[in-house]
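Entry 12.
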Amino acid sequence: METNGNTKKTIAKDQLKEMGYWDSIMDYISTFDTDFYNIYKDFLCTPYTNHIFDAKTIELIHIAINASPTNLCQSKLEMHMKNAINHGSKKEEIFEVLKLVSVLGMHTCAVGIPILVDEYNAYSNDSMPVKLNESQKEQKDQFIKKMGYWNRFRDILLVNDEPFFESYLKVLTNPWEKDIISAKLKEFIYIAIDSSTTHLFENGIRIHIRNALKYGASFEEIMEILKIVSTQGSSTFHISLPILEEALSEI
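Predicted 3D structure (tokens):
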């Protein structure tokens, strides 16, 4: 069911009031299929109307999801950056979110190194020794002190390439050197990117939920993050509808 001009203005005004933004994709959906728009808008706007987080926090979480290496939805990233700024986010806060998100690439090592060790040991019929020297033990202690967790793959990485581990540690802990965003929000960002539909990194989700609880997060707050991340499926429309429109225009 398509909408007329007056109805569309009302729809846009209502969404702006509830969610603080209106974009070309929602405009397209509301014009093409009003019934579905009403259903989908209610799904998207729940975190904005629950008032568990303020709008700025919601937008920073959306930035993390859409800037994640496993997602990178440019149109939604642009939209949520503008929204975050409109809700009072500073450039430094947004950049801090991006620094937190960028380290997600290390999950290649988190998943790959244990597999490598298992397969190497099976192939060589031997067990790879992992013994840290004093310098490496110091780096391990520093990591645990700053981040509050440790996984065995890091022992192997540290023994294999100490300079690489040191550079990784500096990148990982840099956002924790300053209080530009709170420790609890940092953990919320980690939960969001680890639980994203395109990643679902269970070890990371568990570790960062545990850390968030230690920083005072409530069950309801963490549930809200998972609900926000669940709206990642809207990227389907943001990527596909402009392509559909372009294809139709060429017929």
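Annotation: The chain has two domains: 5-100+178-249, 107-171. The chain has a mean pLDDT of 91.
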